[in-house]
Amino acid sequence: MADQLYVQRDQPPGVPPLHLTGERTLPDVPEENYWYRRHLAVYEWIAARVHGRRVVDLACGEGYGSAVLGRTAASVVGVDANPEAFEHARRRYTHGPVRFERDMVETWRGDVDCVVFLQTIEHVHDPDAVLDRIGELTGPNGVAYVSTPNVLTLAPAGAERSGNPWHLVEYRPDEFRALCARHFARVDLLGLFHARKLRLHQLAIERAGWDAVHARLGLTDRFYGWFTPAISARDFRLRRGRSRRLDRALDLLAVLRP
């Protein structure tokens, strides 16, 4: 959802709220909750695996993901070039071993052994150069986590692209794996899928025509006004799978090692 009318609600004193533009997701916007929780689920999965590591969260946006990583990591640097996002993040997320720097993905320098780069590689002009840089930052004993939406489920049926104006390239699972494998010896590719109530909702649409039912009954606004804010990160699940299964994933997460 991309609309300048949507703005973050109930921010702490002194923290400037951000407007939803479609370039990045935001917490505290009820209408955006599906996309926020979809991103948050991946951050929480990574946080469970970075205990004691020195992490950089490149293109960290609003900063919520850096804060999640800071629950377990030894240190976290959130990096973003956008001045509004940087100012918001540094004022809002002040607890734990987390700090923020305003810089470009391609030029940031720091001493880390873990790079997190989520839902951004589809925005960059030279993804090979960015992955080379990520490899330099992680070093011989580090790990990188890189995610991107799966164009096979993001784009409308039969379309080659989603139409998102911020995306320069959108990847199929085999294309994303091949890109990562050009730069890292070990590529573990996972897919993010609906779980719990989102899986039931998906099945209701696919098998029972729920979209037509709620529209016919005039329940659309009331239903989604309740359903969307109730979505949590637990309504998504990361899974490994063969290529055919990953074709149905919402997002793709590559775990990369030298």
Any overview of this molecule?
With 258 residues, the chain is an alpha/beta fold. The chain has one domain: Rossmann fold (3-Layer(aba) Sandwich), CATH 3.40.50. Helices cover 34% and strands 19% of the residues. The chain is built from 10 helices and 8 strands. Helix 4 (127-138) links the parallel strand 4 (114-117) and strand 5. The longest helix is centred in the first third of the chain and has 15 residues, at 33-47. It is globular and about 55 Å long. The chain starts with 32 loop residues before the first helix and ends with a strand.
Number of domains: 1
Low-confidence stretches: none
Provide the structure class: alpha/beta
The CATH topology: Rossmann fold
Query: Strands of the largest sheet, in order across it?
Result: 3-2-1-4-5-8-6-7
| The first-level CATH class name | Alpha Beta
End-to-end span in angstroms? 37 Å
Q: How large is the radius of gyration?
A: 18 Å
State the major sheet. 8 strands, mixed
Strand content: 15-25%
Helix content: 25-40%
Name the overall outline: globular
Provide a brief overview of the structure.
With 258 residues, the protein is an alpha/beta fold.
What's the arrangement of secondary structure elements?
Layout: H1 33-47, E1 54-58, H2 64-69, E2 75-80, H3 83-92, E3 98-102, E4 114-117, H4 127-138, E5 143-149, H5 151-154, H6 173-181, E6 186-194, H7 196-208, H8 210-217, H9 220-227, E7 236-240, H10 243-246, E8 251-257
Parallel strand pairs: 1-2, 1-4, 2-3, 4-5
Antiparallel strand pairs: 5-8, 6-7, 6-8
